[in-house]
């Protein structure tokens, strides 16, 4: 079965690395929501580990760039939120084990 566009978007976001931590934004739990409408416009709601993240602009741009690589995608909107605030509990359980948290 072919991967849905939403699944493809999630997989692209797994390629976006938070270079300070060295892990992808999905594993870190930074992506809260991915929506794809009937016209293949993509909306991503995400956060950073801290509002003071020095790499926020670069990470958001990388996320948008990666999603735009998908041929079917018409438009991309990445929204940054800090509600709810990120906590280490949001990290993928497997990755938490690797990090010892």
UniProtKB/TrEMBL annotation:
Family annotation (SUPFAM superfamilies): Fe-S cluster assembly (FSCA) domain-like (SSF117916)
Protein name: Metal-sulfur cluster assembly factor
Coiled coil spans: none
MIP18 family-like domain segment(s): 6-79
One Pfam family from the record: FeS_assembly_P
Source species: Thermosipho ferrireducens
PANTHER family: FE-S PROTEIN MATURATION AUXILIARY FACTOR YITW
């Amino acid at each position: 079965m072919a991967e849905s566009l939403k699944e493809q978007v999630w997989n692209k976001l797994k390629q976006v690395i938070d270079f300070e931590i060295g892990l992808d934004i999905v594993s870190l739990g930074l992506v809260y929501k991915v929506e794809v409408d009937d016209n293949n416009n993509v909306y991503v709601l995400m956060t950073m580990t801290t509002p003071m993240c020095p790499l926020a602009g670069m990470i958001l741009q990388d996320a948008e760039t990666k999603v735009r690589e998908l041929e079917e995608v018409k438009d991309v909107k990445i929204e940054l939120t800090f509600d709810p605030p990120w906590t280490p509990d949001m990290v993928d359980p497997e990755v938490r084990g690797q990090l010892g948290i």
